[in-house]
Design a protein that fits this description.
7-stranded mixed beta sheet; Quinone Oxidoreductase, Chain A, domain 1; about 350 residues
Length: about 350
Amino acid sequence: MHTIALASHAPDQPLLPTRIDRRPLRPDDVDIRVTHCGVCHTDLHSLHAGPAAAGTPLVPGHEFVGEVIGVGEGVTGFAVGDPVAVGNIVDSCGTCRMCTVGQENFCEDFPTLTYGGTDRIDGAPTLGAYATRYVARDRFVFHRPPGLDPAAVAPLMCAGITVWEPLRSAGVTSGTRLGVVGLGGLGHLAVRLGSALGAEVTVLTRSPGKAEDALALGASRAVVSTDEAQMETVRGSMDVIIDTVSAAHDLAPYLHALDLDGTLFSLGHLGPVEVETLDLLVGRKRLASAGSGGHRWTQDLLDFCGAHGITADVEVLPATEVATALERLELNDVRYRFVLDMSSLASA
């Protein structure tokens, strides 16, 4: 079956409307009409790197929402017309110890990514959701809660779940003293979700001008992380810190802000880090990370957001203006996530 997608054919080449093929429905497949797709920094990195192989297009997009327009003969959990959402994983081995506990994001055979991956059955490259349709295995399609803006739900499937799993695994609840480092796509959702869980949220930011935004999102206070005097006031005062900063940076000030047995989750920067053992030893502190989310916590996130009316703050652009979104994202000129309206692509 054919669909129109935004595809790039070489590193740093523009995304152009292109006809691509989606696979025929397998028994456990769901055919989705994509309505909105978030624009993630991962998309930028992938476009700079280019397609995985010559002659293969790169179609980004791994946080999207839409409507079911068809199901395979073995699908029982979805019907035509259902509102759904999909994140950055569309398959896994299903048998390893991680998959069997609903943590497919840590699949020991590596999960199949929504784009830039390899289909586990036919070996074809996966092409993302900067497109009008997407076909995915039902296990990795999620029910979208009613009453929420679809465009603002899309970033929950990447930015949202990336912060939700550590919040849940750390047991953040009423009374937890939570720190959030950075106030971008991940950070603003960490603040909003942490506040809804009942935590006392402190935002740690390099930008004094973001204090007002932090309070509006639900934080109790904002601290300028480059001000040593302000950081000293929060030393040893937090149980959990979610660090969403994507650039390399010193973790020591945030480890110092943890109380006894506190945990720092480093989510934004995925490269090497240097940590003084004594910064962990004093106070028995922990340094952890997480990425994306498995089935268990992803549906849990959507259900929680539906119950509490939580979505991302987004700027919606027509899919045909994707170049503008990518250029501004590279400049960090967005508050806090771009989302593409795919309806404009149907007539491209």
